[in-house]
Amino acid sequence: MEPTCAACAMEWSIQLEKGLRSGVPVKAILQMGPHLQRWSRELESGIVSNGMFGLVPGEDELFANTILLRLADAFRGGNTEIRLSVVRVFLIERKHHDNRKHKQCKGLLSVARVANHLELLKQVKSVFNSGDSESKALALVLFGCWADFANDNAQIRYLILSTLVSPHDSEAKASLFAAGCFCEISDDFACITLEMLFNMMNSPEVSLPIKLAAARVFAKFKCSYSVAKKAYKIGLDLISNSSNEDILVIMLFSLSKLATISTLLTSNHVNFLVSFLEGQLTSHVQETALRCIHFLFRNNPSLKLYCNTSFEVPDGQPLDLSPSEYETWKGDWTDDEMVELNKLLSDSEALKCIV
Q1: Cβ atoms 291, 335 nearer than 8 A
Q2: What is the pLDDT averaged over residues 70-94?
Q3: What is the mean pLDDT of the chain?
């Protein structure tokens, strides 16, 4: 039987310590990435599996917390390269934290498994308080990766929210990333952030790169249906009041991702996208709207039962497209899927924009 991560934890901890004390700390840190990723995907080891590998109950959590503390300490005392490597490890773990094989599996960074989370936050917070702009940005990214156990900490919340209006783009973008992570799990934080984002998007003093980063956060308001619905309505207002093509494109993508939280919101968004295509839009925005419909339809094939559209194409092909153009346009969709998609579209000219 292959040893579990819990059984390998002591060896990993020793390897990390040796690597950090050697002349190649970055290599040792990056090697922890796959280990943490695998560990997050495993079920928490029970007494039976612990006994099989000679572990006593709680020993796996002890080594896990030791590894996390050592990485946090390396971040606190390291140079920029070391800090970047630590952030990269946790970004990789976060990227895969929703793709576990078992729903009951709690990730390595869940609040239930990190006993010394206050010490972790303290070490990273010290970097934020004393470091330069780049160090502050990296610290904020770590707070986002640790959202599950950091979101209840009032000081960390304040740091993230206050940095949203930082004059330094790197800090503001990092705080937007962290805010998005918190918004996925905290209703009250999401409501505060939503109000701030609305003001940022409407402020002439906020630069375009920051507005684009803020627009991406709208996809994260999935902590509850009520918050998602509120964020969706505000997003629609921002779209209707914006003439910037780049902002429109990102907002359309973000609201499409947000709408997947419920079938009702998804169907409303498809109807909005169809009506949106009837306006005077650039080809890029039209293409984006169609791609969003593509995404929503693939994510929820039953949309045809809910959307208020009646356009039909008898042979399943978009109007005015040659067979070769049709094949290019539909990509990997089946003909049956194309028939259903075409029922959602009422503007044949809009179909041409992505050929």
Answers
A1: no
A2: 93
A3: 80
